[in-house]
Amino acid sequence: MRQENLTVERDEHVAIVTLSRPDKLNAISQALHRETLDVCEELGSDDDVRVVIWTGAGRGFCSGADLTGARPPRDDDSQPPRAQRLDELGWVGRQAMAIYGLDKPVIAAVNGVAAGAGMSLALACDLRVGSELSRFKTVFIERSLSPDSGMSFFLPRIVGYSRAADLIYTSRAVDGEEAYRLGLLDRLVPHEQLMASAMELAKQIAAWPPLAMSSSKRVLRHNLDVGLEDALRYETAGLGYARRAPHDVREARMSFVEKRPPAFTGE
After folding, report:
1. 91-106: pLDDT as tens digits
2. Domain span including residue 250
3. Most CB atoms within 10 A, among 84, 169, 193, 227?
């Protein structure tokens, strides 16, 4: 699949989404935003895709909202006041929900700068692989803005409250090594090995039973903000969902007994 502002490639059960506005450090324009929503919807409904990798073309991952030229959609006078609307997410909220809401693992291969809404995009992914060229910056306070695009939700859950406050209040840049120490990156690899390492991780994940993986993601996400009893109930429901693939349940058992690599199909 090729869109105007991003590309999607397939490698077995892995989809690689590449933001493709390298001259703008892959800043999010109105067109790129819409294509992102379309791609998330398509990949979310494609059972052959088990893992998604998100990366950027050129030397940047995503520099945030495009402040030049055509901007992402925003409120205008033709709409009722925000307080009277049912949908108060805005374009940045809808994008965060689309990526975070994918029920299959998503890996960000952070190949360069990830700033503002671009940093939020990386944080919305389940895992982040980066290199010495990765660079994170919250940016919002520099634009006289408070965080949006899910930043205030994702960042403290990943690095903790006080570290999130430090990064948001100071807007200081964080390089790859510090990002790894803080937990913004889960893997730190040499830049020339970035995509190969992200693909290796993706294929390792894609080899497991897809329904069990989807259930695992749902349970992890749901249980971030609930008490133990609710978490245990949701885990039990997740086990039932994972068992809806009887072939994979049998294959997991038989491959262990027969001491051979499993072959999971999602059925």
Report:
1. 888 899 999 999 999 9
2. 210-257
3. 193
